[in-house]
Structures are given as C-alpha cells and as structure tokens.
Fold this protein.
Amino acid sequence: MAIASRSTPTTPDILTYIQRHFSAEDEFLSMLRQEALDAGFPEIWIAPEQGAFLQVLLRCMGARHVLEIGTLAGYSAIIMARALPETGRIVTVERDPERAAFARRAVERAGLLGKVVVECADAREWLHTLRPSDPLDFVFIDADKLSYGIYLDLSLPLVRVGGIICGDNALAWGEIASDSEDLDVQALRAFNWHMATHPQLQCCLVPLGDGMLIGVRLW
Ligand SMILES: C[S@@+](CC[C@H](N)C(=O)[O-])C[C@H]1O[C@@H](n2cnc3c(N)ncnc32)[C@H](O)[C@@H]1O
C-alpha cells in the first residue's frame, strides 16, 4: 500500500536555512566542538538544530530531572542544561575517562557545575544501581547502539508518566530502511521497533540530524 506523503526532503539549502535560524549553538559551543576535534574526539555529537529541538522540548515539559547516556565532550549535556530551570539537574554518563574529564572541564567553563553531573561509568552496569531521588522527566540515549534496548528497559521505570525517552540516531546514518546488516544498524532497527510497539509509550520519529525517536510514557 502506498503511503501518501507531503513531506519536504531536507536538501542542503534547507539544512543550511534550518541551521542558520534554529540552532542551539553559540560561540562557546562552537569553540567546544573545535577543541573536541583538536583533542581527537570523533565528530559524533548531536547537530545544533537537534539541540534547539531538545531545548524546546525540555522547556515545554518544565523538565528538571534529566539523564543522558553518552556524554562525549559534553556538547549535548550543556545544551540541555541551559534549558533547565535553576533547580534542574542533568546526570550524564560516559564510560571513557578522558572524555568524562574533558566534559567536566567544559561544564565548569560553561558555568554549569551546579546543574550537570558527569558520571564516569559503563552505563550498562551503572544504570542497575541508579536510584534517582525524583522520577526522571527526560532520558536522552546516545551511547553504544547495541545497548539501546537495555538502556530503554532500565531507564523507563525511572521515568515519570508523561516523561520522555529520546533515542538519537533513529535513522541509523541513513541506513534504517536499507538492507544493511551492519550490527549497529540492526540494533537501531530493533530499538526503534521496541519503542514503537512498547505498550507504555507513544512515539514519533523526528527527522532532525540523524533522527530522534521520542517516546512519551503513558502509564
Ligand atoms: C554519540 S557520543 C555522545 C554524544 C553526546 N551525546 C553529544 O551529542 O554531545 C556517544 C558516547 O557514549 C559513550 N559510550 C559508549 N558506550 C557507553 C557505555 N556503555 N556507557 C557509557 N558511555 C558509553 C562513548 O564513549 C561516546 O563518548
């Protein structure tokens, strides 16, 4: 069955337009990206327009308790922290000590030490021990793709009803609908399916950056 579509493809001109007008990136974040590149980090942080979307979402929800799985240089954590109220907190977990240390320094320079905690741990183990004092409003999953399903299962019980789980790379670098047998692509397909069919979630896929799968907890 053909599905009617009026979707506009994101051409390079349209992407430039979106990034020019709807980006969360300021001079500090642009400098941070450059420093992370200079430090040899892979260029796998979210796109600036994804940052703007995350900030709008967090503000709409009045989010105060955020968990991020996958910190890298702290780029997305800083973006999200900026959209939280003074009493808001984000805990971001990163297994690589060098990256965690880099992110902590970035958070300090951003003046966000009171809002962002960078945990250095393997999220697959650490999440089993996490007992947040308040239910989570928002979880951003952006670490190893093979473990996305585990992250969903471990974090969903910690999320309040009406809270959101968001998985990055929902389009699997453009391969989500291809016949690629790459293990990361397969894992993302399985995660998307798990989210889409989860009885406690209502989901949508936002095709910004490499795609963001958003699921709101219903009960
Ligand atoms: C895509 S990057 C995160 C980008 C970041 N969210 C941003 O947009 O600025 C993924 C990060 O997750 C980390 N990671 C991978 N597997 C992990 C695990 N099991 N536990 C914690 N961190 C992990 C990697 O070391 C990497 O730095």
